[in-house]
Amino acid sequence: MAHNIKWFKTIDSTNSEAFRQFEASDDFSVFAAEFQTNGRGQKGTNWESETGHNLTFSILLKSNSIKAEDQFLIAQIVTVGIKRYLKHLGIEAKIKWPNDIYIGDKKICGILIEHFLSGDTLSGSIVGIGLNLNQKQFRSDAPNPVSVSILTGKEYDIKEELESLAGFIYEIYYTYRNFSSGSTEDRLEREYHESLYRLDEFHKYEITRDGRVIEARIVGTDTNACLILEEEDGSRGSYHFKEVKYII
Ligand code: BTN
Q: Structural domains in the chain?
């Protein structure tokens, strides 16, 4: 299926463009750029991407029926879609909670999601995705980047790959966009869980509140999108995004 993709040679940020065009756009409109002058990452960082080498795009979603309390579903749809796309390229990826995509200990894709709420319903979301496709060298202080091309030794056409990736995400979105809480549909939840980076393995984590470093294993996520960590003595804690740091 051909998707509604608007390409820009240069733009400040595809997330910002999706925001500006929100009212006039249909559900699952895609805004993509060869280069962003102000590509935004999580926690106020910049997103580095060489011109025309990678996928930098945003998907505008207007589902109208997902409850605000179920907003983590959007991250699950997108991360599982990206994981399936990479699998079709022959790459086994993991989801680093909440929504980074990792290959081993290296980051191949970052996601910045902005939600809009209307009462207790999600009225829209802008999902910004930066996927390293052809870039071979990274200059920024991003700790551990990798690209598809570094892994496969091939070069990719960004427009063809974006069509393909959008298709993987759309297929899942189409199934879940009318999701309501309590539904028995849990296949996506399971695939997200099974794909978690470091699932069930003991590693070090820093608790940001007090700087304490714990040795723990990820046992899952809860309905509030918190990460559940279990320490060696069996005690468990659940943490919001800013409350815990992976030590890699
Ligand atoms: C992260 O820090 O891991 C999130 C990176 C998200 C980058 C993408 S690139 C396309 C979209 N537009 C932006 O300004 N940011 C996102």
A: 5-194 (3.30.930.10), 202-246 (2.30.30.140)
